Amino acid sequence: MGEKIMRASGRTKLNNRGSAIVTVIVVIAFMAILATTVLYLSSVNYRMKREDLKTKQGFYEAETALEELRGALMVESSRACDAAYKRVASNYASTDAYTRYATFQDVYFQTLEGNWRKKLLNAADPANPYTYEQVLQHLVSNKYASSVHVNASVADAGELDLSHSADGYAILPGVKLVYTDDQGYVTIIETDFLLTVPKFNFGSDASLTTENGDVSKDRTDISMAEYVQYYNWVKK
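User: That's the sequence. What structure does it adopt?
Assistant: Structure tokens below.
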């Protein structure tokens, strides 16, 4: 009887020893799975951040193209502003503040529209005028020219809409940018441009021009960036 108890006790010890080994193996396996999961999630997170960075870089390059186009429109706005300002200055003494501003606004939009339409003229081939899409492409650097389009779903895209001129602004609708960067990432941005009449104080009796007939320094203090803005901007 005593031998049986001793044998049973021995078997029990052997079973405990095997159980500990199994426990160790299970713990090691669990830790390996956990480590693999952590490494996998870290890898996924790294790839997501890398893709996000590339997407942002592509977007910033696309924005550069739009900023070039906005800068060109600021130049057009400035030219129209100069023409309107000089017209007001030439009849300043014989007009009141209301007439001065009304004249400025009218001449501003007339000049803006006239200059914009002139861009359709193709000096190299007068029988084949440029399209507004080509006009927009000519306003940006060669790197971005092929990415600039007019939105086919927008009526009169690329043509100045002066229907709001009485309210002091015009819209250049339907500009679409489809930019593919060096790594193949595509950014699509659709926007209109809002061109607002620059604000001047025409109530003063001071002359608006210098002795040489040039526009006064008060005129050049105005930033055209305030008067050419994105409108209905959408990124896709």
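DSSP finds five helices and four strands in the chain.
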